UniProtKB/TrEMBL annotation:
<keyword id="KW-0813">Transport</keyword>
<feature type="transmembrane region" description="Helical">
    <location>
        <begin position="193"/>
        <end position="212"/>
    </location>
</feature>
<keyword id="KW-1133">Transmembrane helix</keyword>
<keyword id="KW-0472">Membrane</keyword>
<feature type="transmembrane region" description="Helical">
    <location>
        <begin position="67"/>
        <end position="85"/>
    </location>
</feature>
<feature type="transmembrane region" description="Helical">
    <location>
        <begin position="285"/>
        <end position="304"/>
    </location>
</feature>
<keyword id="KW-1003">Cell membrane</keyword>
<dbReference type="InterPro" id="IPR004776">
    <property type="entry name" value="Mem_transp_PIN-like"/>
</dbReference>
<feature type="transmembrane region" description="Helical">
    <location>
        <begin position="6"/>
        <end position="29"/>
    </location>
</feature>
<feature type="transmembrane region" description="Helical">
    <location>
        <begin position="252"/>
        <end position="273"/>
    </location>
</feature>
<protein>
    <recommendedName>
        <fullName>AEC family transporter</fullName>
    </recommendedName>
</protein>
<feature type="transmembrane region" description="Helical">
    <location>
        <begin position="224"/>
        <end position="246"/>
    </location>
</feature>
<feature type="transmembrane region" description="Helical">
    <location>
        <begin position="162"/>
        <end position="181"/>
    </location>
</feature>
<keyword id="KW-0812">Transmembrane</keyword>
<dbReference type="Pfam" id="PF03547">
    <property type="entry name" value="Mem_trans"/>
</dbReference>
Amino acid sequence: MGYFTHILLSNVIPLTIMIAIGVVLYRAFKLDIKTLSKLNFYLFSPSVVFKMLYESTLSLSVLGQTLLFFFIFFAAMYILVEIVIRIRGYKGGMVPAVRNSVIFYNSANYAIPLNQLVFVGDAFTMSIQIIIMMMQSLLPNTYGIYSVNAQKKGDIRKTMRTIMTLPVIYIIPIAFLMNGLHVPIPAPIYTPINYVSNAFIATALLTLGVQLGSMKWKFQLSDVILSNVLRLLVGPAVGFGVVLLLGIDGVMAQALVLSCAVPTSLSSVLIAVEYDNEPEFSSQAVFSSTIFSIFTVTLVIYLLKFIG
């Protein structure tokens, strides 16, 4: 019950309060969700990624093993969700929307505090989670945007130009390089980076709240539940299979499996809103998976002790 209560009080309730504030603000002032979306893509998200990578301590061996795990896990989940999409007969924008709700997960503002809670602030497991977060920041801003626009059969060159304007794809190598070379950042520059990165979680959750507030609330219950099951239950099970396949054990295996158990990423909502691709389904998937995660993540944490 301790983990259940902690996840509820430290993750779900604070996130729900921020989302509720976004709903109220939209109802009161009709906030422009497109502006909020662009702030997340071009300012807040790149800042938090840069700060976390710049301040991290990553070894090459951990980086290599974690990336290998991630790519195998990502490929396995991609194949599974594609099978489900074909069985369900999804068409048009629902194809990338369902896919994004499963393969993109909340590896930053949910998974990082969760990692600190379960592993008591262990620097080794935190470095693993930061690598996962890096990939889960890069892929939505590249493949995620491409898949949504490709489904609309628009101008692919225009889509690629859009992707190339996104700061996060440049921020990641710059942060790694500056970290590795120990390049100092002057305080007058680093202080604003801190200010902006600290605002990421609040702005992203307010954006989700604004989207929920603007919806007509036509529940897509079966689709949302299916997405939640794939993300919250199938995801960690596949993660466990991958660590067995790679022969990873001990605390590293536990950290990797836990990283797969978190709810749908806010980035799936931001993409849906920015490119007008099933924003109602995406918002419902994020919100419901966050609520249900208090039960599923607690179960995963309990089962971690059986991973040797």
